[in-house]
Amino acid sequence: MFNTARLHLSECLKYLRYSGQRQHSKHNTSIDPSKTKQESLQARQQEIMARGLPKRKRIKDVKQILLVASGKGGVGKSTTAVNLATALKIVEPRKTVGLLDADVFGPSVPVMMNIHESPMVNHDSFMEPLINYGVKCMSMGFLIDEKSPVVWRGLMVMSALDKLVNHVAWGSLDYLVIDTPPGTGDTHLSLVQNLFIAGALLVTTPQKVALEVTRRGANMFKKLDVPVAGIVENMSTVTCPKCMTEVSLFGNDTVSLAKELGVDILQKIPMHESIAEGSDSGRPIVLSAPKSKQAEAYKELAEHVVIFLSKQGIKED
């Protein structure tokens, strides 16, 4: 039996602040007043280089990790991550699936997965993931009030991310889908440098400005030696309610980008109100309307992801 207790926000913040202060003091370099400014700078640079990159490690009993990234915000990344995770459980019912919301500042998983509880803490001081629709979930949104903003600096954010990744009792997982924040910043770099990532799924809309940012994200993963599973093109078309004709909204530039990057467009998801309604109601479209064209698109995406991950294998320490 677990000796469990609810994790309260005040306890979480106190723990994260303490961790951040320890990390800051650990790497704080003292300056020798007898040295010149140039000598002190060189000593500082040598210390940083001596640290090197952190050693990658696996999350205990988690076989494969897939990052869902977008570079640009507002392109449907979280919607894709949530529907992908639930679709993976549908197409591979014998597999165990986890979903981590790594967006500390703007967590979306609590609403989209209809989970509004706080996690329990077991006797090893690990948080127990919350489960809905057969998917194990963890999010910063479970630890804060729905209306409370997270106003933190970098060290606090990285400490929170570490706790969400490494201080969760995930148990045995075949797939862990990580919904990352927009951009190509600290969160992505920290995840890739510290964990064995099986691949990254890029989400974009066909707009030129979104594709430009997606290109940057793809190049980031290329530099970090993370395989790109492919591209998901969101809001690619809209269906006329009268004649049921599909109308392209933003052109066909995604095809050119895919060719440039040497990857496939794994799925084109149309713009449809049922997808938004499913996300807002906390019941993903793959569950609320399982036979719809939109749900089938996400399930086909899940099948593509399963094939991709099967080719990557499981990376060891």
Automatic annotation (TrEMBL):
Instruction: List, alphabetically, the PROSITE patterns matched.
Output: MRP
The protein's required cofactor(s) are namely: [4Fe-4S] cluster
Q: Return the protein name.
A: Iron-sulfur cluster transfer protein NUBPL
Give the top-rank taxon of the lineage listed in the UniProt record for this protein: Eukaryota
- One GO CC term of this entry? mitochondrial matrix
Where is the protein localized?
A: Mitochondrion
MF terms from GO for this chain are:
4 iron, 4 sulfur cluster binding; ATP binding; ATP-dependent FeS chaperone activity; metal ion binding
Q: Transmembrane: present as a keyword of the record?
A: no
- Gene symbol here is LOC106748858
The UniProt entry, under HAMAP family, shows: Mrp_NBP35
Query: From what organism does this protein derive?
Result: Dinoponera quadriceps
